Fold this sequence. Notes:
By secondary structure, this protein is α+β, with helices and mostly antiparallel strands.
Amino acid sequence: MCELFAVSSSVPVTVTYSLHAFAEHGGLMHPNKSGWGIAYREGRDALLIKEPGPASESPWVRLIESRPLTSNCVIAHVRYATAGDPSFANTHPFMRELGGRMHLFAHNGGFEGIWSKLRLRSGGFRPTGETDSEYAFCMLLERLAPLWRASEEPPPLANRLSIVGEVAGELASMGPANFLYSDGDVLFAHAHKRHWDEGGGTFSEARPPGLSFARQSGLSVKGLSVEAPDPDTTVVYLASVPLTGEGWEPLAEGTVLALRDGVEVSRVE
Length: 269
């Protein structure tokens, strides 16, 4: 299965990320051949680096490892393709502009029949690739667009949260729907269920938890290091599987979490 990871912090933190090593936390040591990506928010904009090939063979990964970047919102994804060939267009995270901000989306799971069950209505957002994940992102932005286009400022959080939750519920009816979504103001996370590595190259039927989270100023595990400028920095981490033995809380199936600058601003279960 694909692996998700995100950081939300009160101030920019330094993220050193070795995606191939990190993917081993979720049993992706061998299957992670389909691509990887990482996005660093910078205000309304974002720096997105991604490739459709193995992270273990990428010079870009070595660059990230040797020259870590800082941000107060980071979304990363290691892909195991289930829909769409390995290509740049099919690699997560996906990025689109809406309301003068770059929006980011990464997904773990699969949505059977989404193209026929949930039609894009306006044509305002169209996929560039063939994945069910990017199609779901376009559908989410289509639903959110009237809110963002009605004001220069971010729409009320309650209104955005309602739409994210509604879309998450529709997606969950078609398959595992764990996703991370950043609109430049808030980082949203939807926890559903995932296929768990049972060893020997086999995976379980999808079951919760699909995401876990932790609060701590710094983090250091195989393939990942997060350094805060001071110990009082508030940092929240989200990951497909707990990255350390302590401090991680599994998110209940169907939870929608909203984070802003390392603070949980809303949770719907």
